[in-house]
Amino acid sequence: MKHLFFILLVCAFAWNVNADDVTLDRTGWDATASSDETYESPNNVFDSNTDSEWRAAPQKVGQWFMVDMKAPQTFNQIVLDQTGSGGDYPRSIAVFVSNDANDWGNAVFVGSGKDAAESVINLDDQTAQYIKFEVLTNCDMWWKIKELNVRLIDDKTLWKQWTGATIWQNGITWNETKNMFDGDNDSRWNTSKQRSGQWVIVDMKEPQTFNQIQLFQNGGDYPRAYEVYVSDNAADWGSAIAVGDGKDFGGTDPSTFINLIETQQKRFVKIVQTFDSGDSDMYWSINEFSVHAIENTEYRFGWTLSVFNQAGEGDAAFQALDNDINTRWGSGVVQEPGQWIILDMKKEQTFNKITMNWAGVWGDYPHGYKIYLSNERLSNDSEAWGEAVYIGENPGTDISELLIDLPLFSARCIKIEQTGTSGGWWTISELQVTDTPTNIVAMSENGAVIDMEYYNLQGVRVGARLITALPSGVYIVKQIYESGKSHVQKILVK
User: Fold this and answer.
1) How many CB atoms neighbour CB 427 within 10 A?
2) Cis, bond preceding 58 (omega within 30 deg of 0)
3) Distance CA 130, CA 188 (A)
4) Distance of CA 219 to the CA centre of its chain
5) Whether the domain at 12-160 and the domain at 304-438 fall into the same CATH topology
6) 132 touches 148 (CB < 8 A)
7) Which CATH architecture has domain 304-438?
């Protein structure tokens, strides 16, 4: 029997139970529990006595508690009475249902209990004989159940309320995930210090069509670096659909907008923190979570830019992709070798020009750089990227725009690494990557061809100076004219 960690999340919490709703008769019901570190009889949860209880200590992955209702029952609400338990509620659990105690299928609930007298779990209508609760995260606290009741309520809409689940880290995770969906910008879900591997899952209850995720956040408590995943079942997440940095942006809309290059139609969203703040007090907060389907008219929509200093110096990286020449990314520190930016275009793109401009911030161009390419999002380590496909030098004069003409490349990610030094920042107002014909010019306008460069399809330059010296295959040829301009095209050598 295989239980997946990230499983179907179809729950919602409600904090008040309608007295007129039907509570199932518990006569003859039995309960069993995992024997490791458990205390008291599991059947104490059916004795109508809140002075007795079942408990397990401490909470750890794999503990379970199972209810046998002796016959299939129809229900849509489970109430865990934990009166006076002093915070010993389930930090993160999955709930399964079955008619034979063998085939459990996907979980019908993944989430956390509530630090209150009751944890109330609302479900879509279920018909089953067995209910099983399984712990998904370790916690130093006990898990206690005073009384367990199963109900069938008339309000069928409660389970459609969006819900969230998160990893539990003692002393790290603070406010509840439900605050992300309450329409109140002053409440929030948050951690304390940001730690790589922290995650939050959102269940939108039904598939939603969207190409933008909005995280309304509390000031500077944005995710310094993140990955985004989507799923139909909260079990199969696949590869990240977005990798980037959050933004610290005040005013009337302090939000991180995550634009997706491809429109999604999914039920579940998972955001994973990939930055570790160390000893600094950088929280991760989400006051409100929402998704949107917006018109996509800018060719860089969905692209993300990661930078070497996610910790917060300088200006937000997304401003190099916002189509506004008056905003910018700035490093916040002087230029030194090893600084880097990584542009993720989300899918393979064909291009032969990279343009960086500075909107009049003179001298903030890279004073020496290398360009690396990849068809997947690699780590920040240069060794993972292989050899540089282009090496640029300090132009030696103040410029407001740097145009880099390249052979025709196809790649998903571009890494630009600083190799020079300067007393000024590294600044980019707009970063453009294009395959426009602006560097393909007629010979009659630019004089004779003075040089030829040949590259293989991986963008690595080959040593031959003449076509006749090339082995058979497909190559990229760059013709360089007297004017200094160039013509790039693919050729077939037989």
Assistant:
1) 24
2) yes
3) 35
4) 19
5) yes
6) no
7) Sandwich (2.60)
Give residue 177's Cα distance to chain centre: 16
Residue 438: is its pLDDT beyond 50?
Answer: no
* CA distances to 120, 168, 170, 198 from 195, in Å: 30, 12, 12, 6
Among 16-25, 36-45, 53-62, 267-276, the minimum mean pLDDT is found in 16-25
Count Cβ atoms within 10 A of the Cβ of residue 180 and give its class: 0-12 exposed, 13-18 middle, 19 or more buried: buried
C-alpha angle 358-377-409 in degrees, rounded to nearest 5: 65
Q: 165-292 has which CATH code?
A: 2.60.120.260
Q: Are 291 and 208 in contact (CB under 8 A)?
A: yes
| Angstrom distance (rounded) from CA 24 to CA 357 | 68
The lowest-confidence range among 229-238, 310-319, 325-334, 461-470 is 461-470
**What is the rounded CA–CA span in Å between residue 290 and residue 258?**
11
What are 151-184's pLDDT values in tens digits?
999 988 888 888 877 776 555 556 788 889 988 9
Count of CB atoms within 10 A of residue 354's CB?
21
Q: Please indicate whether residue 403 or residue 129 has the higher confidence score (pLDDT).
A: 129
Residue 83: CA count within 13 A, CB half-sphere: 11
- In contact, 137 and 59? CB cutoff 8 Å: yes
Structure tokens at 26: 């518990």
Q: Report the 3 state secondary structure along 388-432.
A: CCEEECCCCCCCCEEEEEEEEEEEEEEEEEECCCECCCCEECEEE
Q: 12-160: which CATH architecture?
A: Sandwich (2.60)
User: What are the start-end ranges of the H helices in 392-468?
Assistant: 443-446
Predicted TM-score (pTM) of this structure: 0.68
Q: Is the distance from CB of 370 to CB of 417 less than 8 angstroms?
A: yes
| Domain ranges within the chain, ordered by starting residue | 12-160, 165-292, 304-438, 443-493
The CA-CA-CA angle for residues 304, 309, 313, to 5°, reads: 110
